[in-house]
Amino acid sequence: MDGLEETAEAAKGKLVYPFAELPPRGKSIEVAAGVHWIRMPLPYSLDHINLWALDDGAGWAVVDTGVRTEETVAVWRELFANSPDTRGLTRVFVTHMHPDHVGMAGWLTRKFGVRLWMTRSEYLMCRVMVSDTGREAPDDAIAFYRRAGWSDAAIETYRTRFGNFGKHIHPLPDSFRRLRDGEVLRIGAHDWRIVTGNGHSPEHACLYCPDLKVLISGDQILPRISSNVSVSPIEPDADPMADWLSSLAKLKREIPDDVLVLPSHNECFRGLHARIDRLQTGQERSLDRLRNTLKTPKRAVDVFASLFARSIAESDVQLLGMATGESLACLNYLLHRGEVVCDIADDGIGWYRLVG
Known about the structure:
10 helices, alpha/beta, 15 strands
């Protein structure tokens, strides 16, 4: 669910990676007092997710859970077996609703009899999307991708894949503890503040500990890849790129630069503000390239080359969907600011062009 890999040049910045080693399978590395780094495998091209265990006094609070697979279950069991600490989990925090983050939350909360802590929008949206499991692709979604310029073959593949979201997520608890922006939680010996953001997901929660100078950034800030910011068929007129850029500015404003950033993918790093600056500058450059491309009318699928460093194959429908969603996020950003108009042709395809 995360962004396309950046080029080596784009990823450069004033970042420092303080840990030379990655956590081995089934074990953890302590990165700050009472904060442990766990690395969980993913069955995707992005082959890992970072989870965080926080000493919570009576046990451990875990932040994010991994995707629902048999391998993930096996690694969790190895962690429990390998740990010299026999305390169990006290609570399960989930930064946002994507399967690699929430997939094992139901399994863990039931296993330890603890509560799930999420923001309201993330919990409810996850419940909505899980309810699509087994459904046929709705007409609105087919029209959405046809308007973007997808071929009949790509749409047919989408039909066969639709409704798989819930298969990657253990059934969620029927209740949850809501996380609110600005809320301060006592976790073990330290206070952690919730800082929410938007764009990558509806109400993404980051956790910031001033005492430890640690920020658990989830997918809002990643050191080597950019977060996927997409428009989906559920809300085709959304402006998530504006939300994401606003969230970057909020993080820079509210979180000091001297924190150790614990991201969901890649390695722990220092240099938060430099990374935010790089992401903002990179996005502005992408939008400038898009503006230049739209001097002649284009479909959403025609602007990939101006936005992404890799080719997007129609045969890879998962990648095609991410690229289409992010292209539409950029196009909608310009639409909402009156820089672009979209003409819908008789065949339902949208053609975007620069105003004037």
